[in-house]
């Protein structure tokens, strides 16, 4: 019977849902203390031999994270890992695909991240800080604001997150260009373009959104040349990875007023050091890598794993499988 490794508190909470799949498997459970059990019997990590693994957010943030990962990587039977993360730049993911296992990622956070992007842009367009200051001052100050209607959005990385952003931006009447390798038309984009077209696209974009994974090819994609090509009064939003941005170059560009504003959820060093200029920069809204932490992401991630688990156990193709070349290049 297929062995599937799951963090024990998650398994206990979802046991009825696993049983309702109607496809049996042998659970390999890792407790909060890091103890590994198979069919109720404690085993050494090297003897657990899981074939499938769910590396979810609960185990990532627990004391069991290290023994869980050790047990996973020691398994000679490993064939598939479902990650709770959308990205795959953590070195452990490279080790997974080097073993020949499939890695599938999660997009449960895409909806919340898209709402975050719209919040950041709207707050800047509508002069949120000035409005809040006027309220604090009890001052009846009217502030004109920019509309999203007919604004040009350049979404770099047009996967699940980029598409969720596009759907919401287009709901406000924005024009969307999606940047990705696959050049097929997409109903949520007015145009699809390759990375090579960025020098021509950046001067036209009112909003630039970074949703692309961090790889060797995308590290410091946003450099001095990229920023110099941006449109005056534009906004850049980064919900991808901090390494996509050359941070000193971005600070210099913000000081020069182009782009006009940055909404940043990710940074090269996290947590962001207290002495970072980003904390106090007047042209920056920042958050602590929290754009996907929403009320609904956990249930969506769970639903995806249940669906993928049934597909795996019945020999069908999995959803959201990462390209091994991209993982190894991250």
Task: Tell me what you see in this structure.
By secondary structure, the chain is of the alpha/beta class. The chain folds into 2 domains: 140 residues, NAD(P)-binding Rossmann-like Domain (Rossmann fold); 177 residues, NAD(P)-binding Rossmann-like Domain (Rossmann fold), CATH 3.40.50.720. It contains 13 helices and 14 strands. The chain has a 7-stranded mixed β-sheet. It has a 7-stranded parallel β-sheet with strand order 10-9-8-11-12-13-14, with helices on one face. β2 and β3 form a beta hairpin. α6 packs across α8. The longest helix is centred in the last third of the chain and has 17 residues. It is elongated. It starts with a strand and ends with a helix. The model has no long low-confidence stretch (mean pLDDT 96).
Quick tags:
about 325 residues, about 35% helix, 7-stranded mixed sheet, Rossmann fold, about 15% strand, elongated
Task: Summarize the topology.
Elements: E1 3-7, H1 8-20, E2 26-30, E3 36-38, E4 41-43, H2 45-48, E5 52-55, H3 57-60, H4 65-74, E6 80-83, H5 91-98, E7 102-104, H6 110-125, H7 128-136, E8 152-156, H8 160-171, E9 175-179, E10 191-193, H9 198-201, E11 207-210, H10 224-228, E12 235-238, H11 247-256, E13 261-264, E14 284-286, H12 297-313, H13 324-329
Parallel strand pairs: 1-2, 1-5, 5-6, 6-7, 8-9, 8-11, 9-10, 11-12, 12-13, 13-14
Antiparallel strand pairs: 2-3, 3-4
Helix pairs in contact: 6-8
């Amino acid at each position: 019977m297929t062995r599937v490794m799951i963090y024990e508190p998650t398994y206990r909470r979802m046991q009825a849902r696993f049983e309702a799949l109607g496809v049996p498997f042998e659970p390999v459970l890792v407790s909060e203390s890091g103890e590994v059990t198979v069919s109720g019997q404690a085993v050494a990590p090297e003897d657990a031999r899981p074939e499938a693994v769910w590396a979810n957010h609960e185990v990532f943030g627990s004391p069991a994270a290290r023994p869980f990962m050790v047990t996973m990587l020691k398994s000679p039977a490993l064939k598939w890992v479902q990650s709770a993360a959308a990205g795959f730049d953590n070195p452990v993911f490279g080790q997974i695909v080097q073993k020949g296992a499939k890695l599938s990622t999660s997009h449960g956070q895409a909806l919340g991240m898209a709402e975050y992007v719209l919040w950041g842009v709207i707050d800047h367009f509508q002069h949120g800080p000035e409005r809040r200051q006027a309220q604090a001052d009890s001052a009846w100050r009217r502030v004109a604001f920019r509309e999203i209607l007919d604004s040009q959005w350049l979404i770099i990385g047009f996967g699940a997150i980029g598409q969720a952003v596009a759907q919401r931006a287009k709901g406000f009447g924005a024009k969307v260009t999606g940047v990705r390798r696959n050049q097929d038309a997409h109903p949520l984009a007015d145009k699809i373009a390759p990375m090579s077209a960025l020098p021509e696209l950046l001067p036209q974009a009112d909003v630039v959104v970074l949703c692309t994974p961090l790889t060797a090819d995308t590290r410091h994609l946003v450099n001095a040349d990229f920023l110099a090509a941006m449109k005056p009064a534009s906004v850049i939003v980064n919900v991808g990875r901090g390494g996509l941005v050359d941070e000193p170059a971005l600070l210099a560009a913000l000081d020069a007023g182009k782009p006009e504003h940055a909404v940043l959820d990710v940074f090269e060093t996290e947590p962001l050091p207290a002495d970072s200029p980003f904390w106090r920069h007047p042209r920056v809204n920042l958050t602590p890598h929290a754009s996907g932490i929403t009320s609904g992401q956990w249930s969506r991630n769970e639903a995806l794993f249940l669906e993928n688990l049934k597909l795996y156990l019945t020999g069908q193709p999995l959803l959201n499988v990462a390209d091994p070349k991209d993982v190894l290049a991250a």
